[in-house]
Amino acid sequence: MRYSDFTQLVDEVFGRALGRTLVSEQVLPRLGGRTPAEALDAGAEPRDVWHALCDALDVPEGRRWGTDRNRQAPPPR
Q1: Residue 21, C-beta contacts closer than 8 angstroms, at least 6 positions apart
Q2: pLDDT of residue 69
């Protein structure tokens, strides 16, 4: 997953305003107590950050991939 895919999914799944707030303010223990933005800035894989955010917010599997039903992402490592 590329960073641009991550950003697109954040906007699709959470809405642009809420999604951007979550990325900059939601502290996730799975990311070492960092926000998604901090984890990405530190070099974390966007895929891993996406899964951590979705898991923390209990996003159902069927909603995790936005509007593109053909979009696939490998499971977290």
Answers
A1: none
A2: 59
d(CA 45, CA 16): 21
Phi, psi of 27 (to 5 degrees): -85, 130
Q: What is residue 34's three-state secondary structure?
A: strand
Distance CA 37, CA 56 (A): 15
Residues 6+ apart with CB under 8 A from 74: 47
20-63 confidence digits (pLDDT tens): 999 999 999 999 999 999 999 999 999 999 999 999 999 998 88
Residue 15, Ramachandran bin (φ over 0: left; ψ between -120 and 50: alpha; else beta): left
Tokens of 76: 């977290």
Strands of the chain (E only): list them.
Answer: none
